[in-house]
Amino acid sequence: MVSLKRRVARKVIFQYAGKDATQTYNEVHTISLLPRTLTTSKLVGKLDPSTIDAAQPPTQRPTAQESDQSKPPLTSVISPHDFEAIARGTLSKKAWAFYSSAATDLIADKANKSFYDRVWFRPRILLDVRDISINSSYPIEEVVSAATVGYPFFFQLYVNKHRPSSESLLKRVWDLGIRTLFLTVDAPVPGKREADERVRIDGTLSTPMSGTTAINDKAGSSLARTMGTYIDPSLSWKDLVWIRNFWKGKVVVKGIQAAEDAKKAADEGVDGIVLRTVSNHGGRNLDTSPPVLLTLLELRRHFPEVFGQVEVYVDGGIRRGTDILKALCLGATAVSIGRTFLYALSYGESGVEHLIDMLRDELETAMRLVGITDLSQAHPGLVNTGDIDHLVPSTLGRLYAGDGPPKAKI
Length: 410
Ligand SMILES: Cc1cc2nc3c(=O)[nH]c(=O)nc-3n(C[C@H](O)[C@H](O)[C@H](O)COP(=O)(O)O)c2cc1C
Hints:
Elements: H1 4-16, H2 22-26, H3 33-40, H4 80-90, H5 93-100, H6 107-117, E1 120-121, H7 140-145, E2 154-157, H8 163-175, E3 180-184, H9 194-198, H10 223-227, H11 239-246, E4 250-256, H12 259-267, E5 272-275, H13 292-302, H14 306-309, E6 311-315, H15 321-329, E7 334-336, H16 339-344, H17 348-370, E8 383-384, H18 386-389
Parallel strand pairs: 2-3, 3-4, 4-5, 5-6, 6-7
Antiparallel strand pairs: 1-8
Helix pairs in contact: 12-13, 15-17
Bound molecules: flavin mononucleotide (FMN).
GO molecular function: oxidoreductase activity
Protein name: FMN hydroxy acid dehydrogenase domain-containing protein
InterPro entries: Aldolase_TIM, Cyt_B5-like_heme/steroid_sf, FMN-dep_DH, FMN_HAD
């Protein structure tokens, strides 16, 4: 019997036979994967990567998006939101659906963003604010080699059901000099991302890390659902011991959405915590999970000591320099941004640099306007969270007395 992988590969080769498949391929794959993926299908002989597009190494090759003449020049990109509008108009339908989609009714995704708009600054005046101070579809080896030596990389891990696979991956990562691991715990199963399900997969996509291949089936065509099948849904607190024994560097638990779990992770000696809604991925997994800003406030109210114990990172919904400053005022050590950077990649490296410059300018302006010159001066007194404070649970655990276990079964 011909394997599914081989059947899909055969279909793709026939689909693109005699045509230029560069654009479709470049949207998601690096050139260095060609010899590995094509030779395993045994449909072609051994391929020498130096014969492929030899004049243009992957980092310099224009992507389909970079070479697209329909995009406005980068100099006319004024707001981080502009990148989103441009990506929507220039990415393929499937890439746009995968990047932008979130779970079911998009409530968690929208709240991640809108809650930042419900926190008001409390600016202080007549302060001298003149001088401000601010300090993968690609194989990990290729990513690391593209950066300057000693660049401080983090590696994000989904634990594989087959633990030896995760262990050998972590060994590769360690040997590359990476010492901080982000352990993603909010995605034991992927959410129902309907926009991603709706756009059919044209040809085939497979992940270099797990080797799983995305397919169209009766539930739809979600990349996340069909490619995340290797992730271990049985991952539990006791596995932190496995990670701790195996990984001697720092571990950051990514995906905490309840103050009790943040406290537990801090007490169990995990070096940092990323707060997110329950399966956030920017609201991509469990819809109506709490917006990240609410989880941050919940932690401040119930376990303020955690901020002194561990570094607290925040992601989800951050789009502006003002959002960054609000999160830092409320105790975040640092923030991460997902989608806007993906959208900026429509312009390749220069798009990402432009976005960083824009966010830094916005952050510096906001700092001056609230009266601080250094991020170490950010504090909760600079924000007014009154509009959402009543949503922070006043007690933890079960809120209603007398709740018994539910009788319903699935
Ligand atoms: C296309 C896409 C792929 C993602 N893949 C992963 C992943 O593999 N592992 C992970 O921990 N988070 C993943 N995330 C979630 C991001 O790490 C981050 O938590 C989220 O995008 C932050 O929200 P924001 O996009 O609103 O900034 C992904 C997000 C997007 C948009």
